[in-house]
Every structure is written in C-alpha cells, then in structure tokens.
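Sample intake — Deoxyribodipyrimidine photo-lyase
Collected from: Hymenobacter properus
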Amino acid sequence: MKICIFWHRRDLRIHDNAGLAAALASGLPVVPLFIYDSDILDCLPDKADARLTFIYDEVERLARQTQAAGGTFLARYGKPVKVLEQLVKEFDVAAVHTNEDYEPYATRRDGEVGEMLGRHSVDFYLYKDQVIFAKNEIMTKSGTVPKVFGAYHKAYLDRLTDDMLLPYGSADAFTKTNLAALAADKAGPRPTLESMGFVRKEQYVPTADLPAEAVVRNYHKTRNTPALQNGSTRISVQLRFGTLSVRQVVRQARALNPKLLAEISWRDFFMMLLWHFPFTATEAYDPKMRHIPYRNNEKEFRAWCEGRTGYPLVDAGMRELNATGYLPNRVRIATAGFLVKHLFIDWRWGEKYFADKLLDYELANNVGNWQWMAGTGAVAAPWFRVYSPQSQLEKVDPELEYVKRWVPELGTPAYPAPIFEHKFARERAVEAIRTARNAAS
Ligand SMILES: Cc1cc2nc3c(=O)[nH]c(=O)nc-3n(C[C@H](O)[C@H](O)[C@H](O)COP(=O)(O)OP(=O)(O)OC[C@H]3O[C@@H](n4cnc5c(N)ncnc54)[C@H](O)[C@@H]3O)c2cc1C
C-alpha cells in the first residue's frame, strides 16, 4: 500500500493542523508519526524531565486518537534522518508532510531529511503552522529585517485577515478513509519513557483549552501582578508543543484584547528574528556587545539559581521556577535583569538555566528575551537601563503576597542580606559595558 507520512513535531494536535490537513487531503492514506529525537534527548541534563513526560503523554493521546479513528500511529526513537530513512525502506512511502520549525537545529535537520528523502524519490512538504507570519513575510518598506517591534506589530495588524485565522479541517478529515491501518507487527512498539532512559515527572500545566474569557478581557490590567494565579493566560506550554493552535489563540485575542494580541505577536517576531539571525542563539546580535567583561562568579550564580540573593522578588521568582517550571513574565524580567546587570553574569548562563527549567522553554523566545534584557539583541532594552529590584517589587507586589508565598522567611534573620547594593551594582555594570563598547568601536 502506498502511504504518506505526517510527521508531528511542535504540533501535538489533530485539530487545526496545517500540515496534517494537507496530508489528509493528498489522496494517499496517512500514517502519523512522532520521532523522539535522540540528538535532543541526549542533551537533557535531567532524566526526570517534566517536558518529556508532557510530550510522551500527548504522543500517547495522539496514538489513541489515531487508533480510535481507524489508523495506525507510529512512534520511534533515534536520529530523525535515520528513522525516516528506515521507514521509507520498510514502507512504500510516497511523501512526508510536516510543519515548519524555524530553529537553527531544526532547519539544518530538515535540510538533511529533505536531501535523504530526495535520494529515495520521496516528496517532502513543509507548511507554515506554528506562527501567523513566518520568515520574511513581514519586512520593512526598504526590504530589511524589521528590528523595531512597534513597526513590526503595526504591519502584523495591517496584514492580519480573518481568512488567515480560519481553522484547517484536519480534525474533520481524520477518518478511516484518509488514514492507513498497518498490521501491528509492521507498526512496531512505541518507545516508553523507561525504554528511552527517562523517568516520569509531572508538573502542573494548564489544560489545552483556550483561556477563560474573563482572563483575556482583563489581561492588560492583571498581567503584571505575579500574585494572581490567572493574571496571564498560561498558554505558553500549549503553544510551545502545539497542543493549542496559534490561530485559535490569535482569533480570541484579536476579538477581546489588543494587548494580549501584541504579546502573542512577540512570539512570531522572535521566531522571525532567530530564523534570519541563527547565530544569535549563542552570540550577541550587536557586535559592540560581544566582548563584555562579565564577572561570571560561580558562587553568585548559584545564589541566583537557588533564590538566595537577598532581593525578595528575584529570590521568589527563582524558587517558583525551580519548584514549578513556570515564572510570570514580570518576574522573568526581574530575575533576568538582576543576573545580567547586578551580578553582571553572561546572559547565556541565565538563558541556559531557564532552558533547563522552564516548561515553556522555547529557543527563540528565551534567547530573544534574554538578549533584550542584556541589551545585546537585534531588539534590546538600552544597555544602560538597570531596573531596581526593590522598586520593581513595590510596583508589582506591594503587599508582598507573591514573595511571601515563595520566601516565607522574609523579614526574619534567616533571610540573607542583599548580595550587592543596587546603586553600586548598577554603576559597576554600566561603566564596564560603556568601556567595552567604546573599545569595540
Ligand atoms: C528572560 C525571559 C525569558 C523568557 N523565556 C521564554 C520561553 O522560553 N518561552 C516562552 O514561551 N516565553 C518566554 N518568555 C516570554 C514570556 O515571559 C512568557 O511567554 C510568558 O510569561 C508565559 O506566560 P503566559 O502564557 O501566561 O503569557 P501571556 O502573558 O498570557 O502571553 C500569551 C502568550 O504570548 C506569548 N508571549 C508573551 N510575552 C512574550 C514575550 N515577551 N516574548 C515572546 N512571547 C511572548 C507567549 O507565547 C505567551 O504564552 C520569556 C521572557 C523573559 C523576560
């Protein structure tokens, strides 16, 4: 039987899935596939990783849904190019369909996969699914990459139409007629967490439903109050793994809250920037910011990681991150700003720590925001801006409700004194950056 494969990656859903809809409409029976990428899993430092557990559960859910619809779901562990090559040898595969991924590793991998499939005369189709505008769909009037968010967002709003947000009909077409049923011995067993060398770790993730209407309507008033459990939408994990469709989310935000729509478009913006400038995953965009003499003190870094800096908002944030894998945006700003300016530690150390801990960790958003905070990015806060952690606390948590939740010993002798005085640390960082920038130019 001639089949086509739909390869799920960051789109762990059947509904409103661009690539899946195209595969189901192609006229060939579809076999959905997920590959646990050994190149990525080998880099996970912790064998109890809540993100892998989340992915595993979602893949198993997709497998059950596929089976219930009369099809066969394949799951494999290994290097994607090798797994796919093996599959095209085992089955009569005419085409592989998948959704685009804009990260440097993913674009390289997809290039190799495309070449390999070409050698076997198998077609490879990629679709835009995880963003509204990708790659160079929004450019400046002079044809350059937009680096001012305000102008980008204006173009985003001008170009956004109802049609772009229509759901793809993948769920309706997900039927026995369009799916391939393979013999059980041909499909093979699906990997388990244990067979991949991992153990189960569950952390709370809000469900894949759209956020409640009241949360969305109030978003601009509540988003900067970390004490509120529903101050923001909490959709980041679902967007990261594609259990929610970005079109669904944008439709709701567009109808109810322009501020939320603007925040969601930062996601497209950062993915677009990383696609154009893949080197920024590990290097400052701004050449003048590439040789900053960061202090990189290991002991102070550990104090930051463990929430022992003596600055309550920073400490509460790091403890929340360590305990839950989540951090409200305002507290991400406070903790990141403190690391790169007050402790004067390389933003890449913080980016890596967040990457290990955040359930919603996403390369483009994490790097984009860290480079913003450090003043090094294609879009960046002014390098001389240093937020006072104390003033931020007074602004966002005046009753200390949030910080007391995570730092119960606050106000007792058990709580450490501030690691550095704010004014001293600010002047130290600003002077060192100024000197390095002058030397670079
Ligand atoms: C230092 C730092 C690191 C960050 N790392 C990540 C990360 O790894 N993954 C991640 O998804 N977000 C990251 N963010 C952005 C933002 O903090 C989170 O998306 C947000 O807190 C998630 O909670 P929410 O879903 O309730 O967001 P809401 O405020 O309800 O926003 C809705 C959605 O819009 C998008 N969004 C909102 N703010 C931003 C932003 N500043 N940049 C990009 N997208 C945004 C997200 O997809 C988010 O889920 C980071 C921010 C900072 C300052």
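Post-analysis note: The domain at 131-168+212-276 is CATH 1.25.40.80 (Serine Threonine Protein Phosphatase 5, Tetratricopeptide repeat).
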